[in-house]
Specification:
Organism: Streptomyces eurocidicus (Streptoverticillium eurocidicus)
Distance between the termini: 27 Å
CATH topology of the largest domain: D-Maltodextrin-Binding Protein, domain 2
CATH architecture of the largest domain: 3-Layer(aba) Sandwich
Number of domains: 2
Order of helices and strands: HHHEHEHEHEEHHEHEEEHHHH
CATH class of the largest domain: Alpha Beta
Number of strands: 9
Shape: globular
Largest sheet: 7 strands, mixed
Keywords: Signal
CATH superfamily of the largest domain: Periplasmic binding protein-like II
Protein name: ABC transporter substrate-binding protein
Structural class: alpha/beta
Helix content: 25-40%
Pfam family, one: SBP_bac_6
Strand content: 5-15%
């Protein structure tokens, strides 16, 4: 993904990404905070973060270095005295990394926002998360936040269709369209056994159409790559014209669309502050900023806040009959069932091949503080 911000902007046709909201700067807000404007609360949090040292480390789920720089850059522009290190990697790598940091009592991350939605209830139970209700908390959808304030959905990510602009009206839309003879040798997908959101996409398809759908899809001789960014970026190049299960590319060679009948996937990328975060004041500022109405109204796609308008031309994120934003979390919460399906998919598509696209040189290690793997 050449330009993460442009790539996400290209995906706005899906309503793919939205930062969201939350209220008060403390788990039990005071009367003064309750009556203060969000801007006043953010300014006070900013002062606290600067006094703390002005440092912040964020671990962000993704599959390309710099993929979350649009967040870091917007945050630093808003709060110029802050220094932020944002480390992007597969969520399944970050959660293992965080488990190790927690167990070793050497936590270097302050905030995490990941796709591995099942981790957050577990971390809460283990006492690994900081209880904190950010600015705008009462405006966040109840369905995507912890009632006690330990974690919250921060923005929605959606995976649907990515098709080459050259196809025009002939672009595939529904799952069955991808089986048409004209698309043989022209499809490119992320390994579903490498990304649980893509795995869930395939699970929904086999639930609806049976494993026979997989057999027909594989008969199209699709290309499989690591990372949704690389899969969508390939569309429109080298003869590849279509993909489902990713969120769009900044190349200008493709467009995104949502199927009307076939299942697709969207979910609230969820975030939290670590209990042993080195920079808690900065972490509270970041969580409150990303969930503030001011940021949400200028962000992409559906908001996690109930008081921010749905993107033009789209239904509410909970109003699609062929997509349940809570489905991925339920799927990931049943690890035994997930692992059984992953083993089945592995028989169809084979073992995952290739380097981690978020860390191609294997430099991040156990305690990364920046994208180059440098430790603080």
């Amino acid at each position: 993904m050449k330009s993460p911000r442009k790539a996400w902007a290209a995906a706005i046709a899906l309503g793919v990404l939205a930062a969201s909201g939350a209220t008060v700067a403390a788990a039990t807000p005071s009367a003064r905070h309750a009556s203060a404007s969000e801007e006043e609360q953010l300014q006070k949090l900013y002062e606290d973060a600067v006094a703390e040292g002005g440092r912040l480390v964020v671990y962000a789920g993704g599959d390309k270095p710099g993929q979350a720089d649009y967040l870091k850059n917007a945050f630093v522009k808003r709060f110029p005295k802050m220094k932020v290190d944002t480390v992007v990697d597969f969520s399944k790598n970050h959660d293992a990394r965080l488990d190790n940091q927690i167990a070793a009592h050497k936590v270097v991350a302050d905030v995490v926002h990941l796709q591995t939605l099942d981790d957050f209830p577990r971390w809460k139970k283990e006492g690994a998360l900081e209880k904190y209700k950010p600015v705008g908390w009462n405006k966040v959808y109840d369905k995507i936040k912890d009632k006690d304030g330990y974690y919250s959905g921060l923005f929605f990510i959606g995976f649907a269709d990515v098709t080459a602009t050259t196809l025009g009206g002939n672009a595939p839309v529904e799952a069955q369209d991808f089986l048409k003879p004209e698309f043989k040798n022209k499809l490119v997908f992320t390994y579903p056994n490498d990304d649980d959101a893509v795995l869930y996409y395939f699970k929904q398809l086999t639930d609806k159409y049976g494993t026979g759908y997989l057999e027909k899809l594989l008969a199209q001789n699709p290309k499989f790559v690591r990372g949704t960014a690389d899969a969508s970026a390939q569309v429109g190049k080298d003869g590849y014209v279509a993909n489902f299960g990713s969120s769009g590319s900044s190349s200008g060679l493709s467009t995104t669309s949502i199927p009307e009948k076939s299942p697709w996937v969207a979910w609230p990328q969820t975030g939290a502050i670590l209990k042993d975060a080195p920079h808690k004041a900065a972490a509270k500022l970041y969580m409150s900023w990303i969930l503030s109405k001011q940021y949400q109204e200028t962000s992409y796609g559906w908001s996690a806040r109930t008081d921010v308008a749905t993107p033009a031309g789209r239904k509410g994120v909970f109003d699609y009959p062929n997509m349940n934003p809570l489905g991925l979390g339920a799927f990931m919460g049943d690890r035994a069932s997930l692992d059984r399906y992953k083993a089945l998919i592995n028989l169809y598509v084979g073992d995952v091949k290739g380097a981690d696209p978020a860390d191609p040189e294997g430099r991040l290690g156990l305690y990364p503080v920046d994208q180059n793997g440098t430790q603080g």
